[in-house]
Amino acid sequence: MPAVSMTVNGKTVSGDVEARTLLVQFLRENLRMTGTRVGCDTAQCGACCVLIDGDSVKSCSVLALQAEGAEITTIEGLADGELHPMQDAFREHHALQCGFCTPGMVISAIDLVTRNPDPSEDQIREWLEGNLCRCTGYHNIVKAIQAAAQAMGG
Amino acid sequence: MSETGIGASVRRTEDNRFLQGRGNFTDDINRPGQAYAYFVRSPHAHARIRGIDAAAAQACKGVVAILTGQDLEADGVGGVPCGFAPDGGPIKEPPYPALAKDRVRFVGDRVAAVIAETREAAKDAAEAMSIDYEALGAVVTLADAPKEGAPQLHDDAPGNLCFEWEIGDKDATEQAFAAAHKVVALDLVNSRLIPNAIEPRAALGEFDPGTGNYTLHTTSQNPHVVRLLMGAFVLQIPEHKLRVVSPDVGGGFGSKIPHYAEEVVVTWAAKKVGRPVKWAAERSESFLADTHGRDHVSRAELALDANGIFLALRVKTTANLGAYLSTFAPLIPTYLYGTLLGGAYRTPAIHCQVRAVFTNTAPLDALRGAGRPEATYLLERLVDVAAAETGIDRVELRRRNFIPSDAFPYQTPVALQYDSGNYASTLDKALALADAAGAEARKASAEKAGKLRGVGYSTYVECCSLAPSNIAGAIGARAGLYEAAEVRVHPTGSVTVFTGSHSHGQGHETTFAQVVAERLGVAFENVEVVHGDTDRVPFGMGTYGSRSLAVGGSAVAKAIDKIIDKGKNIAAHTLEAAEADIAFADGTFSVAGTDKELTIGEIALSAYVPHNYPLETLEPGLDESAFYDPVNFTFPFGCHICEVEIDPETGTVDIVGYTAVDDVGRIVNPMIVEGQVQGGIVHGVGQALYENCVYDPSTGQLITGSFNDYCLPRAQNLPAIQTGTQETLCPHNPLGAKGCGEAGTIASTAAVMNAVVDALAPLGIRHIEMPATPEKVWRAIRDARAA
């Protein structure tokens, strides 16, 4: 089996994987980092979003081998003693219920605010096209992202 | 009000772990040596299994075992049972085998389980399975199911009929119709939906040969119910040898109520192969083999007098049950449906007939609202049609027929006794919040921009707090629907609450702790809420039907009352006073008329380190459990107003305004209630505009088998939602709570569709079926213009 090596949340990790192993499987099954989740099999739901070299990417659509040498940030790597402002805004604005889609939502939202520090409501709703939530109706997710953008200096 | 007590928008305790990826969902759990299960599912809607050749699959790398229906039968493992048989007539309960042996009856029916070292190995081997099917004709639609010559699913259910059921006074209804000034009628379909919680179902079975104990981790809304059904009726494992754990569960919406065959297979297989066995559904499997919801075809008729007063309602519904009876399937189109047809109105005579049929489609069961959205959609659409055909304004017609606020308790003609309500009040509040007075002007300005604009109203009543056990038993439930709780005050005064309710997004760890903090006068931070584990929680009926706070929370309140009583006894002994003289408030026990007092913390410490208790009258410890059985259902109500704009060139429906005013009784955490209402509304909007489960009507193949094909509402489909609340307390449970998890869904589908039809009404369009997709709306506009 081919070997793969990458940096996940600042730590160098490596493993032997089948060539078909998806990045999300590598994270969940090899590294036992289960915060990144699988909610579908058609790259629609976004529960598996991670940052690869700063970009939000659906880790179900990337082979582990394609991430060779990459810098990966998962939901587990965001808080640094304190919650990341996006995590904090999600809590403050009740932007999560069951919590299953939340890691992907938070990662995706961080990428949005990195690209667009002051997104409008429409821009946020448009951006979230690739992230499904069945619990919240999105209302509070949009509010949280707006608030986080402000907190992050937008 | 304290910052963390009842009525405060306390930020959720559980968020900390979810936000950091530290949630513990079933598929996040791994056990040493675990193997993985993959289910081989039928590609046919209806077929006879002539043979299963597993040789090639068995030879695949990493295969541990291949298990079939024959293996189950050899081990004496029965089918999955149904938990409800409605009263009043015979019901067909064909066997629902955990793995099909001779015949498959829907695409996705389980035929074999491949157990292997990895998921991929199990999947590879599953592809190498050779199953010889003899395809049989499939019956898919409600229209086809009863037809002469239609394929028959079950030998003992001729005509594919499972049961017929009725409620209400047929004769009185017929007489009222005969004497009516006006009768309006509407044929309508309640579309079929796939629940699609974002966490796919998963199950992990374990068997410990040293103790003989089984453990099942599963994505269930009600782990004790799974333990009861699977232990007692399927695998014959006594309760003390079977632990069922539902850890964090990623949304349920009804689809995680039933006891599923996959749970049986992984538990049984764990012993058989001597290793933990884990299965996690792929989303495609969720589409195929989670229970689906709704799927009714109805004819509804309303009789009115010359003033628009409703005289009688007559409903005939055919409901789809799918291929087999899921756990609560027969309850949904009967007592959770027919009893809600009274709505907010004092219609004196109602008669509803339901025919429930089998088809070669996935089994149906509860989906958010479960029967009540179907009733509300039918009734609220019919009221709008009546308004159009009598020329009476839609709001005025509703108002004229509301049960007046001084008429409670109110006995409906369909079995329920509403305890309280003030329907005009939520209507008025919603009208003001939505600026209904400005709707005409907005419509005119939309018209100038070439858009069709419409407003829709839905004034609903729902029925929660399932269920008074005596009523549940009388109507056919095979268990009572009480709830259990244990409140354990630790020696230093912190508290653990064990609840039989289950949180899969509702925030019990916060809300229930608020109830304890308020009632017991302890710090919110010092209360831990435990749920979802049959080894830790005394008993439980779980979470569905918006019952957690009203029933589960009431059980907690009852256990707290026992703690306080015990505390008084301890205080009386310690302070050398009569128990009757001990008062309790804000966490302190005091002797009336003196300055002698003890805090709950001091009482707790004393309870665990007693030195001089009178042993015959006072036991050590401060730990009480309670079972709460509701005396009646609860009846949340409210008014939702939706405003839409339709582009006649494309048929696209945009929701441009949505206002909801709900009365859900006592609100413990307004932030959480608002979130529940918002989420519920979007679920109903999904049915109205986007979601639709489609099977090929001739082959029974699922056409909408992925998120590419089945349109879940997305953020950009939706507007901001305005919500308001009113708080009329439930008069008969200790918290005054009614329930809020489903109200949004129950109300919103009708509000949206009434708005769509209102926008299209100037073209002469009287009704449109759900979902109101651009294509359907565009075609309706084109046909109306051509006519």
Secondary structure: elements and pairs:
The complex is a heterodimer of chains A (154) and B (787).
Chain A lengths: L2 E6 L2 E6 L6 H8 L18 E4 L2 E4 L12 E3 L11 H8 L9 H14 L5 H7 L11 H13 L3
Parallel strand pairs in A: 1-5
Antiparallel strand pairs in A: 1-2, 3-4, 3-5
Helix pairs in contact in A: 2-5, 3-5
Chain B lengths: L14 H5 L15 E7 L5 E7 L1 H4 L4 E6 H6 L28 E2 L5 E7 L2 H9 L2 E6 L25 E8 L1 H9 L3 E12 L8 E7 L4 E6 L4 H12 L7 E4 L15 H13 L3 E4 L2 H7 L3 E12 L5 E13 L26 E10 L13 H19 L3 H8 L8 E2 L5 E2 L4 H11 L5 H10 L3 E10 L7 H7 L7 E7 L5 E5 L8 H13 L6 E5 L16 H27 L7 E4 L2 E4 L5 E3 H9 L14 E6 L8 E11 L4 E12 L6 H21 L31 E5 L16 H18 L13 H13 L1
Parallel strand pairs in B: 1-12, 10-11, 14-15, 20-21, 27-28
Antiparallel strand pairs in B: 1-5, 2-4, 2-6, 3-5, 7-15, 8-13, 9-10, 9-12, 13-14, 16-17, 18-26, 19-20, 19-25, 22-23, 23-24, 26-27
Helix pairs in contact in B: 9-18, 14-15, 17-18
Describe the structure.
- The complex is a heterodimer of chains A (154) and B (787).
- With 154 residues, chain A is an alpha+beta fold.
- Chain A folds into two domains: 3-75, Ubiquitin-like (UB roll) (Roll); 85-151, Orthogonal Bundle (DNA polymerase, domain 1).
- Chain A has five helices and five strands; from the N terminus they run E-E-H-E-E-E-H-H-H-H.
- A five-stranded mixed beta sheet of chain A has the order 2-1-5-3-4, with helices on both faces.
- In chain A, helix 2 (85-92) crosses helix 5 and helix 3 packs across helix 5 (139-151).
- Chain B has 787 residues and is an alpha+beta fold.
- Chain B folds into four domains: 31-138 and 200-250 and 256-289, Alpha-Beta Complex (Aldehyde Oxidoreductase, domain 3), CATH 3.90.1170.50; 145-190 and 292-390, 2-Layer Sandwich (Aldehyde Oxidoreductase, domain 4), CATH 3.30.365; 419-468 and 632-787, 2-Layer Sandwich (Aldehyde Oxidoreductase, domain 4); 483-628, 2-Layer Sandwich (Aldehyde Oxidoreductase, domain 4), CATH 3.30.365.10.
- Helices cover 28% and strands 24% of the residues of chain B.
- In chain B, the strands form seven sheets. Chain B has a seven-stranded mixed beta sheet with strand order 3-5-1-12-9-10-11, sandwiched between helices.
- Chain B is globular, with a radius of gyration of 27 Å.
- The chains are: A alpha+beta (154), B alpha+beta (787).
- At the A-B interface, helix 2, helix 3, helix 4 and helix 5 of A face helix 1 and helix 17 of B.
